Amino acid sequence: MSAPHIALNRFGLGARPGEAARLGDPRGWLLSQVEGGPPSLVARGSDPAASADLFRSFQAALRSGDEARVAELRREVQTHGQGEMASVLTTRVVSDRPFAERWVAFWSNHLCVSALDGFQTAFLAGAYEREAIRPHVFGRFEEMVLASARHPAMLQYLDNVRSVGPGSVAARRPRRGRGPAADALRGLNENYARELLELHTVGVNGGYEQEDVEQLARILTGWGVAGAGPERAATAGARAEELGFRFNPLLHEPGRKSVMGRTYPEGEEGGMAVIRDLARHPSTARFLAEKLATHFIDDAPPAAAIETLERTWLETEGDLRRTARTLVELDAAWDADYRKFRTPQDWFVAVLRAVDAGEAGGNFPQILQQLRHPLWGPPSPKGFGDLRREWADSDALMNRAELARTLARRAGRGLRSGRGAGTARGGGPDLRALAAVVALDAGDPLGGMLTDGSIPVDERIALAFAGPAFQWR
Amino acid sequence: MSMDRREFLHSAGMCLGGLATFGFPEVHFANVRQDGRLVFVLLRGGFDGLAAVVPTFDPAWRDLRGSLAADPDALLELADGFALTPGLAPLREFWERDELMVLHAMAIPYRTRSHFDGQAILETGLDGPEGSADGWLNRLLSVMEGERAGISIAAGMPRSLTGPVEVASWSPTELGVVEDAYLDRLSILYRSDEALQGRFEAALGMLDVGEEMDAMGGQPRRPGADAGSLFRAAAQLMAAPGGPNVAAMEFSGWDTHANQGVVGGNLDRQLGRLAEGLSAFREAMAEQWAGTTVVVMTEFGRTARPNGTGGTDHGTAGAGFVLGSGVARRAVVSDWPGLADNQLYENRDLAPTLDTRAVLKGVLAGTFDLTAAQADRVFPGSAGVRGMWELMT
Question: Has residue A42 been placed in a domain?
Answer without folding.
Answer: no
